[in-house]
Amino acid sequence: MIMNKGSILGVDLGGTKVAAGRIDNGILADVFYKFIPAKSNDAGDIINAVIKAVEKVFNENVSGIGIGIPGLVDREKGIVSDVQNIPSWTEIHLKDILENHFDVPVFLDNDANCFALGEAKFGRGKGVDDFVGLTLGTGMGAGIIKNGSLMQDANCGSGEFGNIMYLDSIYEDYCSGKFFKNKYNINGEDLAKAADNKDPLAVLAFEEFGKHLGNAIKTIKFAVDPKKVIIGGSVSKSHKHYEVSMWKSLLDFPLPNAMKDFEVIFSNIKEIAILGAASLVLDKKVQLTN
Fold first, then answer.
1. What is the pLDDT of residues 204-258, one digit of tens each?
2. Whole-prediction pTM value?
3. Mean pLDDT over residues 80-95, rounded?
């Protein structure tokens, strides 16, 4: 299997669909979405959905495939387990399956790590050697870039700030779409529309959310002290409604010197999940040449 061709593939695996895209010479050239059958709990069906999505964008110039997984991954062996919203994927040898099918190298990592790596290669993290990519959607995840590289760990578990204890639960319950659903019984998208129309309850909900998010970012600062936090995910699209309260929460960080030049910014690339997954291939190429 060789890696000197001009195209790479990125695959974003979600609970309801697989998104695959081909990057030609650094530009996203083709994207295909394959929807997973509703309530499907057959591991083979979902593997086939991944294969079909990749086949739609694959060509002879592809030198490698990167896949973002919403769960735990054994990077070296390419084994997937504990995938969010796909309970049948308890021990899937995805790397071997796809390498045997497509005859190119396949690299897997947690989807939040892929987001951070994608921002480093294609997005607002370019040229920044020390930042955290924070994903806010149905859950809360993070990838850590240190010294220009994705932090390596045993099980893709570093950056799981959402599972840190906070108030009566964990950060994820206060800093993701779960907060809106659990406390206000509404999804983030509908709440954002209400906030756009100055609905007082929606405005208050986002102000609360921003306060909790600021507290989470303070915890991230204590843990890894990044220069920037780059936020992506579906909830990031509504940042105008909670950005002010987030920064108010950050104002009382007890180490003021650590906040000099610190930035919290928001991703502005639509297909960053695909680009992030493809970045696994680019990252491996760099590692192999060093």
1. 999 999 999 999 999 999 999 999 999 999 999 999 999 999 999 999 999 988 8
2. 0.91
3. 83
CB 253 within 8 A of CB 259: yes
Task: Let me know if residue 1 belongs to a domain.
Answer: no
Residue 31 belongs to a domain with what CATH number? 3.30.420.40
**What total number of domains does the chain contain?**
2
> Treating both helix axes as pointing N-terminal to C-terminal, what angle do 200-224 and 177-184 enclose, rounded to 10 degrees?
140
Taking the C-alpha atoms of residue 18 and residue 35, their distance in angstroms, rounded to an integer, is 6
Whether residues 206 and 259 share a domain: the answer is: yes
In whole angstroms, what is the distance from residue 92 CA to residue 94 CA? 5
Residue-number span of the structural domain to which 190 is assigned: 127-266
Query: Residue 96's closest CA among 57, 51, 30, 37?
Result: 51
Alpha-carbon gap, residue 146 to 136, rounded angstroms:
21
Residue 266, token pair as written in the block: 């928001």
Q: Are residues 82 and 134 in the same domain?
A: no
